[in-house]
């Protein structure tokens, strides 16, 4: 088997565990979106264009609450700001790819593809650029098509799913499975603790705007801790 084929199948295998939560996650979004008044085709178009589960949930829930359009847009953008950090983290590995490949990879940059790629590139940093690109596309192969299908299926058949199945379990489990392995440094842990604490303390704020404050506080905390650790390490050398 060629190195590129091996890289592709490693990517597929790395993302297979995410399938367990992608399906109920997508189905739940389809149900929530149709409850908010969207048609199945609108749900599918939303998933195809945005392809960001957390931002899609935030936008639909805020629209369902009657939030102003500006709040919907700002919250959705804030939720997706992590993609900028994902992009920066992957640039040393994938930044040398042709522009058209980077554009496609940017579209498919989701939590699962980032988690799989960052773990793979840390484990095998000496892979060629083309092997890394191939791995990346292998990682999105089982995830993104299932997200489209599951969200559309939830919109069409969601009403038939018994309430006791409690599909909403998929949302927290999906993010715990993605973020827990990434808490490797003091900065990561500090940012996570601050984000959770501030979000819980500001749960009373309208339209979930407390999440925006929590995100800003977490990023500031993580940056401050990382800067402190770098300065302390520099003093030791």
TrEMBL record:
Q: Which UniProt keywords apply?
A: Cell membrane, Membrane, Transmembrane, Transmembrane helix, Transport
Q: Which GO terms describe its biological process?
A: L-valine transmembrane transport
Q: Which GO terms describe its cellular component?
A: plasma membrane
Instruction: From the record, give the transmembrane residue ranges.
Output: 12-31, 43-62, 69-88, 133-153, 165-182, 211-228
Q: Where in the cell is it found?
A: Cell membrane
Q: How does it sit in the membrane?
A: Multi-pass membrane protein
**InterPro entries associated with the record:** Brnchd-chn_aa_trnsp_permease
The UniProt family comment states: Belongs to the AzlC family.
Q: What is this protein called?
A: Branched-chain amino acid ABC transporter permease
Phylogenetic lineage: Bacteria, Pseudomonadati, Pseudomonadota, Alphaproteobacteria, Rhodobacterales
